[in-house]
Specification:
Shape of chain A: globular
Structural class of chain B: mainly beta
Number of domains of chain B: 1
Radius of gyration of chain A: 26 Å
CATH architecture of the largest domain in chain A: 3-Layer(aba) Sandwich
Strand order of the largest sheet of chain B: 1-4-5-6-7-9-10-13-14-17-18-19-20-22
CATH topology of the largest domain in chain A: Rossmann fold
Distance between the termini of chain A: 65 Å
CATH class of the largest domain in chain A: Alpha Beta
Helix content of chain A: 25-40%
Radius of gyration of chain B: 22 Å
Distance between the termini of chain B: 18 Å
Strand content of chain B: over 45%
Number of helices of chain B: 4
Number of strands of chain A: 21
Strand content of chain A: 15-25%
CATH class of chain B: Mainly Beta
Number of helices of chain A: 15
Largest sheet of chain B: 14 strands, antiparallel, barrel
CATH superfamily of chain B: Outer membrane protein transport protein (OMPP1/FadL/TodX)
Oligomer: heterodimer
């Protein structure tokens, strides 16, 4: 008996040693950089690159920007662990400058949006994205409070609001240019420009990058879309001239590749597929029979007998080019119209203003420019041997929706998990998925094996 | 010693991580584990209650066996296009057990009772890995209580049948992809006991010569049904609570598939026994995992994921050599083909073809008391799957298990 006990304890001991040393392993090909050198990575772009989210630039969004996530993955293939971003101070969020509604001469910046349950204009309590606090006047003092919390040079050179040509413009970060009419500088670049007269591309080249991502051009067409397609061809908000756009991108890429750097270009999503333009349906006007009869009679009295209504959902009445008419199913209503329809009854007796509607003609202009820009981006990427991220196709995939690791993703506002509370910019989860799209094309182009990031570790829209 | 082991059995009735194909756990006898879990065509002692009730009337004595295994299982996971292992299970020790008692009424007729755990699964991935919305942890238990009778028609031929009374329970936890302001994620827990269910276990044993024996055994399918199980939510943000109503219950059903086995035993010499078994497991009974909720959860009154298991074979060989009258050495091996088709891999049972290697010793302390010890090593083939048909978690899984076990045999 004793002997058996001895034997079994030896057996148990051996088994114990065996167990700890015998965890199952999975042989995956090792991470590798392929033909690319990730030691100095710079990211150029606009708000998407900067990590702008929920209608504002703030620290958590920056920390989850797709360039920050890419840099973290690049670390496993020789990238630097010191990827610098012009981080905002803790607790401060700054949105895009706008005119103060009650005093248009004052330029103010709103805070980020958060979801709150609160009564709307009709007293119905519901979840709504609201600004977290009061907007601040954009003064030099306020700007001073937004100084980055880390020293440059900055690897992430994303500037919210930037168009293609802005990246080439000297003085785009000059504080003196903020107050001119029109402004020649951008407060988001003024925060971190290395000198008043530098340009984004100059600050990038000063770091002698070995690898870059350039994702620019959204604002070249988005400004027009956000204004409801109202800007005239002479306006600075009209889409950038197609040939000029090609020249700007070529100019940027020529400089970026002048030292032999490799990189990836991102193309432009179809802006009309983002929630800002797809959340409010064209037929959001729901009427009772009585209301329909009243409205029909009202328009008939104005000599607009062709505008009629019926019980149930009706196309919104919009004012396009000065003429009231019913919206068509292919036209898009901008997100801010939601509150105006609900609270001020716009879209019925009073039409929705032109700047809240994208007509078919305006959508065609957007599509034409987007297609042209994307053709240029692809041609330049191919000519220079650069990776090409097709975010236009990605957004199309999103608009039909897909599931990954048990989570449904689509371009729905709030619940789609991709877009933050401004309906335009990404959640951290959305940024992680974009980073993986970039990794896909970089791996394919340069024969690299950069590991994908676990997107589930990044937040979606936080609920109260 | 006896009471200590009994206490251990009473406290931990959790069977092991999906060990064999699917969630079958083939650990029914310490002697037979040592021999690659063959036994359909052998006189396996009291464990014939499980392996082949037809053989029970031929064992020639009354006796009791109690045994149990310590099941250490580990699964590694590598996400698609990652570098190396990105998650590992932290499975608790599984303790499948078996108790058999046989009473020889007369030379022809025996009656017995077996309690064993042929199905079960315990997998614990935690709530941080990338597949957490699919699974945090699963505990599936099934305990079979089987009164059995056996009749020796001749001294070469025996038949037997047992009625299986089956109890079971399931506990499944997963993360819910809704986040609070502070970043905590919601959780979902399904917990329920199965209604008692019945099945049967029948066998024929035929020993044409001293050296050769053959057996056929069929264990029927048993459907375990949970009715009115609890659905519990945790950390759901207030804004989303309407989607995850308190007090929801669920119904679900899980098949414990049928198993048909044919086995052969061969004794070339007095001291050496060789055995081979082939089993066919009716896994095609497991078509889907469906939960019906009493109130809609996340907007849906049901949650259904396809499984579409296919029937699978298990091939086993084993041998026992009596070194002396008291000491037996055993060894065996088996190949257990996976029932999980491509596209249907899940983190509950990230199954693939599994290879088992076993060794064992038996020692007779006295005429009436012997001890069996076994060690089984299971290595499942590394498997990469898109899991696109099962709502599973895509990636590569690799499982191994180490299972030492001990059993005590008393003869009267």
């Amino acid at each position: 008996m004793k002997k058996i006990f001895y034997k079994s304890s030896v057996l148990a001991l051996m088994a114990g040693m065996f167990l700890t040393s015998c965890d199952p392993e999975i042989d995956s090909p090792a991470a590798s950089s392929g033909e690319a050198d990730f030691s100095t990575y710079v990211a150029l772009g606009n708000s998407l690159t900067a990590g702008f989210a929920d209608g504002a630039l703030y620290r958590e969004g920056q920390q989850a920007s797709y360039p920050a996530i890419l840099a973290q993955q690049f670390e496993q293939v020789g990238g630097s662990s010191d990827f610098r971003q012009p981080l905002m101070p803790e607790g401060v969020s700054v949105g895009s400058p706008r005119s103060n509604p009650s005093n248009p001469s004052i330029v103010e910046v709103p805070q980020k949006r958060v979801l709150r349950a609160q009564p709307d204009c009709r007293g119905d309590v519901g979840l709504a994205p609201v600004e977290a606090g009061n907007a601040a006047a954009l003064t030099p003092t306020f700007l001073g409070q937004l100084a980055p919390t880390v020293q440059g040079p900055y690897n992430n050179l994303g500037v919210p609001g930037a168009k293609s040509f802005h990246l080439l413009a000297p003085g785009y970060g000059n504080p003196a240019g903020l107050m001119t009419q029109p402004a020649t500088a951008n407060p988001f670049f003024a925060r971190f420009a290395s000198s008043p007269n530098t340009s984004v591309i100059a600050d990038a080249m000063a770091q002698n990058p070995t690898f870059f991502t350039l994702w620019i051009g959204n604002n070249d067409v988005l400004g027009y879309a956000l204004a409801g397609g109202t800007p005239a061809p002479t306006s600075s908000d009209y889409p950038t001239n197609k040939d000029m756009f090609t020249a700007y991108i070529a100019g940027l890429v020529n400089q970026l590749t002048s030292n032999g750097a490799k990189g990836a270009l991102g193309n432009i999503p179809d802006v009309t597929k983002i929630p800002f333009f797809t959340t409010v349906p064209y037929n959001a006007l729901v009427l009772t029979a009585e209301q329909a009869a009243q409205l029909t009679a009202g328009y008939a009295a104005k000599g607009l007998g062709h505008i009629t209504f019926q019980a149930g959902p009706n196309a919104l009445v919009v004012l396009e080019d000065g003429i009231p008419r019913k919206a068509t199913p292919t036209e898009l209503i901008l997100l801010p119209a939601a509150d105006l329809i609900k609270c001020q009854n716009l879209g019925s007796a009073t039409p929705l203003p032109d700047q809240l509607v994208l007509s078919d003609a305006e959508l065609a202009i957007i599509k034409d420019h987007t297609n042209s820009y994307n053709a240029s981006i692809k041609a330049i990427a191919d000519a220079k041997g650069l990776a090409h991220g097709d975010f236009n196709a990605y957004l199309s995939r999103l608009s039909t929706g897909f599931a990954q690791n048990g989570v449904a993703y689509n371009s729905a506002f709030v619940t789609g998990n991709i877009f933050s509370l401004d309906g335009i910019h990404f959640t951290p989860r959305g940024a992680a998925l974009v980073a993986n799209e970039f990794i896909n094309v970089i791996n394919a182009k340069y024969g690299a094996r950069i590991p994908k990031v676990d997107e589930t570790q990044y937040k979606t829209v936080a609920l109260p | 010693m006896k009471s200590k082991i009994l206490a251990l059995l009473g406290s931990a009735l959790i069977s092991g991580t999906a060990l064999a194909g699917g969630y079958q756990v083939n650990l029914a006898s310490q002697r037979q584990i040592g021999m690659g879990h063959t036994g359909t065509g052998l006189l396996t002692g009291t464990s014939s209650i499980f392996f082949n009730p037809g053989a029970m009337s031929h064992i020639g004595y009354s006796g009791v066996t109690i045994g149990g295994s310590a099941l250490v299982s580990k699964i590694a996971y590598s996400a698609p296009e990652s570098s190396g292992v990105t998650a590992r299970t932290d499975n608790p020790l599984g303790t499948p057990f078996q108790v058999y008692g046989v009473y020889q009424v007369n030379e022809k007729f025996s009656a017995g009772l077996g309690v064993y755990t042929p199905f079960g699964s315990t997998v614990e991935w935690g709530n941080e890995w990338s597949g957490r919305y699919g699974l945090n942890q699963l505990k599936l238990q099934a305990i079979y209580v089987q009164p059995t009778v056996s009749y020796a028609i001749t001294d070469k031929l025996g038949i037997g049948v047992g009625l299986s009374y089956v109890i079971g329970s399931v506990n499944l936890q997963r993360s819910v992809p809704v986040q609070s302001q502070d970043g905590t994620e919601g959780g979902l827990e399904l917990d329920g006991s199965a209604e008692s269910a019945f099945g049967f276990n029948a066998g024929i044993y035929f020993q044409p010569t001293e050296k050769l024996s053959i057996g056929v055994n069929y264990r029927s399918k048993v459907d375990l049904k949970v009715e009115g199980g609890d659905v519990m939510f945790s950390n759901i943000p207030a804004a989303a609570r309407g989607n995850f109503p308190e007090g929801t219950t669920f119904n679900a059903e899980l098949p414990m598939p049928s198993t048909l086995s044919v086995g052969i035993g061969f004794k070339p010499t007095e001291r050496l026994t060789l055995a081979a078994d082939v089993s066919h497991v009716g896994w095609d009974a497991y078509e889907k995992l469906r939960f019906d909720f009493s109130k809609p959860v996340a907007g849906s009154p049901t949650s259904e994921a396809a499984r579409n298991y296919e029937n699978a074979f298990i091939y086993r060989i084993g041998g026992e050599y009596m070194v002396s009258d008291a000491l037996a050495l055993r060894a065996g091996a088996y190949l257990d083909k996976t029932p999980v088709q491509d596209g249907y891999l899940t983190p509950e049972t990230p199954d693939s073809d599994s290879r088992g290697l076993s060794a064992g010793i038996g020692y007779s302390v006295s005429e009436n008391f012997s001890i069996d010890a076994s060690f089984l090593y299971i290595n499942k083939k590394e498997r990469t799957d898109a899991a696109n048909l099962s709502n599973g978690v895509p990636g590569t899984f690799k499982s191994v298990a180490y299972i030492p076990g001990i059993g005590l045999n008393f003869k009267f």
